[in-house]
């Protein structure tokens, strides 16, 4: 077990976990319809035909032979439009040209398209400019060739991949079954209804956005036996288990011990504020992510680690903005220079406005105060923002920071 690992190392360990366990799921054939985006291919998709199947015009103009550019005028003998079957097109002979619309097949014998802007027509006679073979033509097979691998196995299907599959005329593909994830909370205060369970429902919403099937298993009381049984049972029946709370250093924090005894802990604690007390391990060949109990800590840990497990190395959308407050970081629990502080910000006119300072909806600090991560992390309202910056050093007002966007 590695402990108190830097954020970069945590990402490497999650990547290795994903490589080993994520695709250990059965597969199924599904129809290519609107439910497909977000699924992951379990087999390569291979082209059964050339695309486009023939040379097509990429511009409105006149289909002609490039060698005829030395012999203007040419005789205009017809018109071709997108949708005209190739088999119905006449052979284009020397000295002839045909009007052609964008997207139409070039007739046999033609090898280029003279743009309308470069053409002059007098009756049925065409005058133009010198032109080379292939001008304004999309060649046959330039999109893909028959037998070519177009989409590789394990590819997550986005709108682009979905469009390609539809364009290839594929009606059914093999995909992995959606990951089934169990989510549960820990703590007497939640199990007894004293405090509402926030973390589990934040995690459930994220997991569903990431393409998972989820089950909420409720809250476990602060009892080691109950904690151990709940994790063991969930690991037996699900592809991944996510808990929140019970993973710090309190006398009733039993989750870490349960994972250790049931399986193995890959890493415990990450150098981030919030989100430091996280344990990631494996029980019965099932990854277990034990997130912090503080709501914002659980959100951060889910965004940084759980998201990476389910979506891979795809980075969140981001932009750069100038921060409007001095962010003076506390080093009270470590002298390490690589502690990553997540600062939640609102974006406005190119500025990143940190929540928590006077003038924000949570005025917990004054300008010039040390950044109070503990106060910020205690209330999920602090994350009702546009995004967050990851800062590893004191940052002065006006500096440009990278803001990861909540989507």
Short structural summary:
The chain has 8 helices and 25 strands.
How is this structure best described in words?
- The protein has 407 residues and is of the alpha/beta class.
- 21% of the residues lie in helices and 29% in strands.
- It has eight helices and 25 strands.
- The strands form six sheets. Strands 1-17-19-20-16-14-15 form a seven-stranded mixed sheet, with helices on both faces.
- Strand 22 (340-348) and strand 23 (351-354) form a beta hairpin.
- The mean pLDDT is 93.
Biggest beta sheet attributes: 7 strands, mixed
Q: Total helix count?
A: 8
Oligomeric state of the chains present here: single chain
CATH topology call of the largest domain = Molybdenum Cofactor Biosythetic Enzyme, Chain A
The assigned CATH architecture of the largest domain is: 3-Layer(aba) Sandwich
Which key phrases capture this entry?
single chain, 407 residues, alpha/beta, Molybdenum Cofactor Biosythetic Enzyme, Chain A, 6-stranded mixed sheet, 21% helix
Secondary-structure map with pairings?
Elements: E1 2-5, H1 7-22, E2 27-31, E3 45-46, E4 56-57, E5 61-64, E6 74-80, E7 96-100, E8 112-115, E9 120-122, E10 125-127, E11 137-138, E12 149-151, H2 159-167, E13 172-176, E14 180-186, H3 188-191, H4 199-209, E15 213-220, H5 224-237, E16 240-244, H6 255-262, E17 264-270, E18 272-273, E19 279-283, E20 286-291, H7 295-311, E21 318-323, E22 340-348, E23 351-354, H8 373-377, E24 387-391, E25 400-405
Parallel strand pairs: 1-17, 6-7, 14-15, 14-16, 16-20, 18-22, 21-23
Antiparallel strand pairs: 2-13, 3-12, 4-11, 5-7, 5-8, 6-10, 9-10, 17-19, 19-20, 21-25, 22-23, 22-24, 24-25
Helix pairs in contact: 1-7, 4-7, 5-6
């Amino acid at each position: 077990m590695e402990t108190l690992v830097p954020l970069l190392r945590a990402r490497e360990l999650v990547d290795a976990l994903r490589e080993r366990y994520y695709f250990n799921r059965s597969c199924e054939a599904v129809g290519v319809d609107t439910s497909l985006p977000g699924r992951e291919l379990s087999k390569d998709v291979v082209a059964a035909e050339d695309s486009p199947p023939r040379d097509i015009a990429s511009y409105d103009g006149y289909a002609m032979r490039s060698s005829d550019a030395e012999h203007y005028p040419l005789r205009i003998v017809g018109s071709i439009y997108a949708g005209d079957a190739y088999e119905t097109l006449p052979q284009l002979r020397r000295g002839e040209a045909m009007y052609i619309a964008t997207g139409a097949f070039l007739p046999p014998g033609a090898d280029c398209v003279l743009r309308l802007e470069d053409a002059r027509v007098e009756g049925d006679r065409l005058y133009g400019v010198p032109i080379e073979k292939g001008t304004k033509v999309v060649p046959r097979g330039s999109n893909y060739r028959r037998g070519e691998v177009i989409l590789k196995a394990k590819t997550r299907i986005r709108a682009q991949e979905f469009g390609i599959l539809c364009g290839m005329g594929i009606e059914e593909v093999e995909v992995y079954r959606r990951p089934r994830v169990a989510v549960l909370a820990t703590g007497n205060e939640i199990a007894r209804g004293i405090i509402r369970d926030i973390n589990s429902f934040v995690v459930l919403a994220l997991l569903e956005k990431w393409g998972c099937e989820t089950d909420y298993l409720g809250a476990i009381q602060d009892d080691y036996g109950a904690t151990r049984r709940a994790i063991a049972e969930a690991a037996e029946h699900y592809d991944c288990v996510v808990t929140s709370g019970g993973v710090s250093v309190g006398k009733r924090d039993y989750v870490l011990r349960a994972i250790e005894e049931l399986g193995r802990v890959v890493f415990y604690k990450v150098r981030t504020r919030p989100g430091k007390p996280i344990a990631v391990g494996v029980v019965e060949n099932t990854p277990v992510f034990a997130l912090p109990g503080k709501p914002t800590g659980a959100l951060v840990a889910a965004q940084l680690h759980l998201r990476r497990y389910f979506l891979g190395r795809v980075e969140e959308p981001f932009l750069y903005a100038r921060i409007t407050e001095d962010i003076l970081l506390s080093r009270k629990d470590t002298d390490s220079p690589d502690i990553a502080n997540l600062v939640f910000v609102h974006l406005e006119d190119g500025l990143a406005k940190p929540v928590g300072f006077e003038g924000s909806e949570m005025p917990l600090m004054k300008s010039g105060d040390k950044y109070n991560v503990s106060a910020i992390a205690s209330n999920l309202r602090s994350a009702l923002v546009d995004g967050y910056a990851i800062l590893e050093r004191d940052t002065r007002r006006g500096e440009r920071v990278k803001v990861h966007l909540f989507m």
